[in-house]
Amino acid sequence: MSLLLRNALLLDVTTGEYAEGDLRCADGRVAETGPGLSAPDGTRVLDLAGAHVVPGLIDAHVHVTASTANLGTLGSMSPSYAAAHSARIMGGMLDRGFTTVRDASGADFGLADAQEEGLIRGPRLLFCGKGLSQTGGHADFRGRGRHLKDEHPCCAGVGRVADGVDAVRAAARDELRKGAHHIKVMASGGVASPTDRIDSTQYSMDELRAIVGEAEAANRYVAAHAYTARAVNRALEAGVRSIEHGNLIDDTSVELFLRHDAYLVPTLVTYWALKEEGMEFGLPESSWRKVDEVLEAGLVALERAARGGVRLAYGSDLLGGMHRHQNHEFRLRAEVQRPIDVLRAATTGAADLVGMSGEIGTLAVGAHADLLVLDGDPLTDIGVLADAKHLRHVVQAGAIVGGQAGATVQSL
Questions:
Q1: Domain annotation for the chain: domains and CATH numbers
Q2: Is this prediction's pTM over 0.90?
């Protein structure tokens, strides 16, 4: 199946400039771009009448299994029930323009295979399996009065507990065995976990380095959950590729990001959403009270990182019924960044982070034909990306899979 987009404004995200012309997709890839392209027999043709076309969006921090904000309950859900929720959540992400997502713990090879085979609608799914947590860490959901733990090997919990260098090596190897694209490690406390402090550091340096070593041996990388400068800096020194959240970084953190060529993945929208409606969607009150500690600091951290030249990727980290706010992250970041820079984080930046530069996040010939047709210019109004009503078409692998429609379509 071939698809030809005529009379479009095609965005080169790297330069931030539009080119007038056509774009043809074939066999799931961008086949050619330029003025006056011809359409082979059987090609579906859309006359876009000057609409803006950008690459499909990439969210580098999602939890597609998080049907509730009470993450501790996920591990005891029936796998089939969790999968049904995940299919619904992934379909919503695709409808919002996200054609690739990186799951930051919870999703597994089954969901990735189901999406790839067309069994469920959704973005291309890059998964890490279960995140690694120390005892009492961010993925240990036991309350203070509970002793025994069940790792729920059959179910879609977001984490597994492993302590000591040998144990974390084995855990990392096990997630890699199951096909993980990256390894997630909990390097500090967090909001959703019941017994840790946000300002704690988690895992020893020896444990962190062992996890990084296993990922690198498999030509994969480590993403680290971390909030405070102390936790972030330890993780960067240990060799992680991306810091998730990073709300409380300092100037030393910026220097370490640059030195280690690492990424920051802010997730501002989740704190906004958790504060507004987290308890409505299952967030325990004890966790809700932690939100204030990181909410206000997020924009400050993003501005510090952007000013310092840190490489950035787009992330949302939403849970439960709050997934619908995924695109609001564009508005939040635009308070301190130019629209083109926010869009780069959700395209070329995220693509580089996940090791798929030139494959996704671009309209270049040879890339996956994932793109959005918009009824406005996101570089002058970020609301064009923040509100799905502006999304005319979602194209994934060269096929129209969503959007509001509104272009003239014909077949040759």
A1: 2-56+360-411 (2.30.40.10), 57-326 (3.20.20.140)
A2: yes
